[in-house]
Design a protein that fits this description.
The structure is a single chain. The chain is α+β, with helices and mostly antiparallel strands. It folds into three domains: 6-155, 2-Layer Sandwich (60s Ribosomal Protein L30, Chain: A); 159-171 and 207-260, no CATH class; 175-201, no CATH class. The chain has helices at 6-15, 20-25, 60-63, 70-87, 107-124, 176-186, 192-203, 209-215, 229-239, and strands spanning 31-34, 50-59, 92-101, 127-135, 140-149, 167-169, 245-252, 255-260. Strands 1-2-5-3-4 form a five-stranded mixed β-sheet. Strand 3, helix 5 (107-124) and strand 4 form a beta-alpha-beta unit. The protein is globular.
Length: 261
């Protein structure tokens, strides 16, 4: 039997869960649904409140190169969720954090983790309200984040809204993170300035989250692009009736523009 990939595993789980809401929210990074959904009309006294939920797991051996310090790993775990919220234009409000900590993890490292969570909480204005801890063979951090918005549902972009004639805009340049990983894992030699920028994109990423918070309501479709440009474009195309992309060699204010066809 061939090993299942991540998408196939998710689809398998979904096939065993019988919930009509799942058909509405699946295939996106953030679960977005009206608070009133499923509440009987006679009990429904809520206003137009939209709930956004996100869960993201960080596993040290696959998501955190050894040069990363514990506080940087903790910050990255929070940022991964915040970035997905930004792509939908919804500011996160609070989160719960579950942590698997190895038995040999020192007090110093645990203090560093706590400092990283505190830094991320202040940096991204997200309240950390609880969670769970357990022992594990390696460091594992699972962040569960929640946000609220009163934006109309049709103003919150999903992956499936792209259509012919749209323009794709990115909030920054691509390639630094993959270059940083290559430098770390293969000891690849690079020019000093480029090397520092690439390594920083791995250990202390700074996605332009305000770009999404301010502009996402004007997008027809959106996605967090931390998995890379090609993967992100594929997801948008696959979920939007398989539109294609035409690259136009045009650059405006450091942002490259792509057209959908």
């Amino acid at each position: 039997m061939n090993r299942l990939n991540e998408r196939e595993i998710i689809d398998l789980f979904i096939s065993y869960i019988n919930d009509p809401l799942l058909d509405k929210v699946k295939n996106d990074d953030v679960v977005i649904f009206p608070l009133r959904y499923g509440i009987p009309k006679r009990e429904n006294k809520t206003s137009n409140i939209i709930i956004a939920l996100k869960s993201d797991m960080l596993v040290e051996s696959t998501d955190a190169p050894k040069i990363m310090k514990p506080w940087q790993i903790a910050r990255k775990a929070i940022l991964a969720c915040v970035s997905d919220f930004a792509a939908k234009g919804i500011r996160p409000y609070a989160c719960l954090i579950s942590i698997g900590i190895p038995r040999n993890y020192s007090r110093k490292n645990i203090v560093s983790l706590a400092a990283g969570f505190s830094k991320a909480s202040k940096e991204f204005n997200v309240r950390i309200l609880g969670g769970d801890t357990n022992e594990s063979k390696e460091l594992i951090i699972d962040c569960n984040m929640m946000g609220i918005t009163t934006l109309p549902d049709n103003k919150i972009p999903r992956r499936k809204g792209a259509k012919a004639g749209d323009i794709i805009v990115t909030s920054g340049k691509f390639g630094y993170t993959s270059s940083g990983l290559k430098i770390i894992l293969s000891n690849f030699n690079a020019e000093k300035k480029f090397k520092l920028k690439s390594l920083s994109s791995v250990t202390f990423p700074k996605p332009r989250i305000e770009f999404g918070f301010c502009l996402a309501k004007y997008f027809s479709s959106s996605i967090d692009s931390s998995d890379g440009l090609s993967s992100s474009l594929y997801e948008l195309a696959h979920n939007s009736n398989r539109v294609d992309f035409l690259l136009i060699k045009y650059q405006h204010q450091k942002n490259y523009v792509t057209f959908l066809i």
